[in-house]
Write a structure and sequence with these properties.
201 residues, alpha/beta, Aminopeptidase, 4-stranded mixed beta sheet, two-stranded antiparallel sheet, 8 helices, 45% helix, 14% strand
């Protein structure tokens, strides 16, 4: 999905190359409870360090470096982080097909998500789309880490969460959702900055 969105939006794509059942690339290094899983926490210290050195640090550094280079050229960054979530957690059914996560205190992020949610609800009425669900966008994550480094005028970090039931759907809803999201991202990227969005919404 990330590859297809990147191609449709003419944007760079960085893919994680390891399962979060071993190490979660979206968690901060100090968040040891969520960074490692019950499986990997049992590994010897040397093997956990290998996960950091071989998979975690290279991925995070590559993304952060590209964002930094882009911003240094005077171009604001829209950072889309894609994840999937399980349809059921702790016996409770998740009531969404797509979730868009953002920091409510960041006006631009709030407006970007409102814009994308509106597009999805108008053009894919069968899909259940929610904001800041099934997680809160301001909690620990790579986008939250980068928000501490860059102000909202030059960096917007949006996490798109896809229900795994939708990912395995054969009815075409997933591809339609991808096309709609790509259309929305292309619209946002047509402009040099995010000021138009803040004024329009």
């Amino acid at each position: 999905m990330a590859r297809r969105l990147g191609k449709q939006c003419s944007s760079s794509v960085h893919l994680g190359s390891i399962s979060r059942l071993l190490i979660d690339l979206n968690r901060s290094p100090f968040n040891r409870k969520s960074l490692y899983t019950p499986y990997s926490r049992k590994l010897p210290q040397g093997e956990r360090q290998l996960l950091l050195d071989k998979y975690y640090q290279p991925f995070r550094e590559k993304v952060a470096e590209e964002i930094g280079r882009t911003i240094s050229r005077g171009t604001p960054v829209l950072h889309i982080s894609l994840h999937s979530f399980s349809p059921v957690k702790s016996g409770k059914v998740r009531k969404a097909d797509i979730g868009l996560l953002y920091d409510p205190a960041r006006r631009t992020e709030k407006h970007i998500c409102r814009f994308l949610v509106t597009l999805l609800k108008e053009n894919a009425v069968s899909l259940r789309v929610r904001r800041n669900y099934p997680y809160l966008g301001k909690t620990d994550g790579f986008t939250a880490f980068l928000r501490r480094k860059y102000p909202g005028k030059i960096y917007a970090g949006i996490e798109i969460e896809i229900n795994q039931a939708l990912m395995s759907s054969s009815k075409g809803e997933k591809r339609k959702a991808e096309d709609i999201i790509a259309e929305g991202i292309r619209t946002i990227l047509k402009y040099h900055d995010f000021s138009w969005l803040n004024k329009a919404l």
